[in-house]
Design goal:
Elements (H helix, E strand, L loop, with lengths): L3 E5 L4 H4 L1 H12 L2 E8 L3 H7 L5 H23 L8 E8 L2 H11 L4 E5 L11 H11 L4 E4 L18 E5 L4 H18 L5 E8 L10 H27 L13 E8 L3 H11 L6 E6 L2
Parallel strand pairs: 1-2, 1-4, 2-3, 4-5, 6-7, 7-8
Antiparallel strand pairs: 8-9
Helix pairs in contact: 5-6
Length: 289
């Protein structure tokens, strides 16, 4: 389980959308939350300060930013939403994405949870860019909440079904290694509900030799789809037996799979996630028991 959840905040309501999810995860896993705020002074601000001969004024400006950040984090930590949850606050000065990654490492975080967008003004983070850098360079699992989307909390008011996570696989060891973390995340977000996962493999159109007939080309396509399906069946069976993610062994979490034909892997993944389209068929493996 994710015991230590790091949440970067920039003072905006958009960034704070991640707090209810972090609280839910911390309570489910009996864990704690690490609130982080990074002070990054923009180039334009430094240019104006460069005209001032006194270094004391520059130091005073930085100290004021840090004090404001610390008061802000203290207020969030003391808010009613955090009652019963252990909260640690960290304020750093530096470049946003590297500082967040450094804080995650120093604080022994298990996961980074953040919103995709925050402030867009000169003195605040451009969260979309920061989130992209964090996801690309973090060695920890990263959960990014889309702006204005529903919060992934099965226990939230009005929730009628458990959270179902779509996990794209491409046959690589890297993709397979992500399975355990993805399953742990689903279990944590669902609380006492069992949740569900859906495995997806996107198959691109094969390149054909011009000498092949139409029938032969169809056979090549069919073989590529067959291999993708056998791969997903094998992964599902290994999940059932606890060979990939031991945390799933013995649980009754539904595991389904589907193969999508698309030359654009991202488009194929999104199509299945948003519409459930799957022209190539799917398989359902009830509970892994």
């Amino acid at each position: 389980m994710f015991q230590r959840i790091l949440v970067p905040l920039d003072g905006s309501e958009r960034a704070e959308r991640s707090i209810p999810v972090a609280v839910h995860m911390a309570r489910t896993a009996s864990g704690s939350i690490i609130l982080v705020r990074i002070i990054e002074t923009p180039v334009e601000y430094w240019s104006s300060l460069a005209q001032i001969p006194s270094a004391t004024l520059v130091e005073t400006a930085i100290e004021a930013e840090i004090d404001e950040a610390e008061r802000y984090l203290a207020a969030v930590a003391a808010s009613p939403a955090m009652v019963g949850v252990t909260v640690q606050t960290v304020t750093l000065f530096g470049q946003v994405a590297p500082s967040i990654l450094s804080a995650a490492n120093t604080c022994n975080a298990d996961i980074i949870l953040m919103s995709s967008h925050g402030y867009t003004g000169m003195k605040r983070w451009v969260m979309g860019s920061v989130a992209e850098k964090i996801a690309r360079h973090s060695t920890l699992p990263v959960l990014i909440l889309r702006d204005s989307s529903l919060l992934p909390i099965a226990a939230q008011s009005g929730a009628t079904s458990p959270i179902r996570a779509l996990i794209p696989l491409d046959g690589s060891a890297h993709a397979r290694a992500a399975l355990s973390s993805a399953i742990e995340l689903v279990m944590t977000l669902n609380g006492h509900n069992k949740g569900a996962i859906h495995l997806v493999r996107v198959v691109k159109s094969p390149s054909f030799d011009e000498s092949l007939t139409v029938e032969q080309q169809q056979e090549v396509r069919a073989h590529a789809l067959y291999r993708a399906k056998r791969y997903l069946i094998s992964i599902t069976e290994q999940l059932r037996d606890g060979l990939i993610a031991p945390s799933l062994a013995g649980l009754t979490m539904p595991v389904t799979w589907s193969v999508a034909g698309d030359d654009d892997a991202a488009a194929g993944i999104l199509r299945i996630a948003e519409k459930g389209d799957d022209a190539e068929g799917s398989g359902t493996f009830g509970g892994c028991n």
